[in-house]
Predict the structure.
Amino acid sequence: MRLKDKGIIVTGGASGIGEATIRRAVAEGARAVIADMNAEAGEALAAELGDEKARFVRVDVTRSEDVAALFREAADFCGVDGVFNNAGVGGLCPAVDYTDEDWQHIIDINLSGVFKVAREAMRHMQEHGGSIVNCASILGHLGQSETAAYTAAKGGVLNLTRTLALEGAAKGIRVSSISPGYIKTPLLEVLDQETLDFLTDLHPVGRLGRPEEVANAAVFLMSDEASFITGADLLVDGGFAAGKS
Ligand code: NAI
């Protein structure tokens, strides 16, 4: 089992890619903390997996005090060996129509939230090391109309990952990122069928990804099998980027 006896935190763990990662991590022997704003879904998942294996902690990743409390509780419940820094939001808007608030909302969650969680993770991993996996996106590598804040945040996550990897290396703290292509999760529910068909065609494999396919990558990067991987980004995109580079 890849994560036997490891303690794992997954932000955004109550839905989509995060939920799939919680399920896979527990199946691989981890004890896991589901960290999310959505208490109803998070509590239900924790109850399904059982008290011994999973605990829900309500957290807003934009709030440093929530993040600190999350790590204190996780340290007590399971220890902090791996963190999947995955909470994020989407949103489509032409750049000229963005309000300051809309811009800030996405940057706060998708970039500053990732930093706040990674910072706290590194504080907790100073003595024994660990693995932090940040969720970026194919849109961290490529531009796309009407996603100015999202693409800026995800591009930021890629380079933040490299810098944190350099700072953590001597302490045995690995920091890497995953860049999913379009994955069929609730994040895409706002899109109409025409848009989904267009997005599907962007993937040479001819389909959207499944949350489990990103979860597999996250679990691998948090496991000791990835012991020489740090500062790297892993594309999980059905070949999307291959035709663009
Ligand atoms: P999702 O909408 O299914 O799940 C996101 C989770 O994050 C939800 O449970 C939500 O409650 C939680 N969340 C949102 N704001 C939060 C906050 N401030 N504090 C704590 N939790 C918060 O989305 P999905 O698709 O699973 O996305 C997960 C990550 O994957 C995101 O970072 C997203 O940007 C990234 N991603 C998703 C892609 C897709 O096509 N679904 C493509 C590339 C990247």
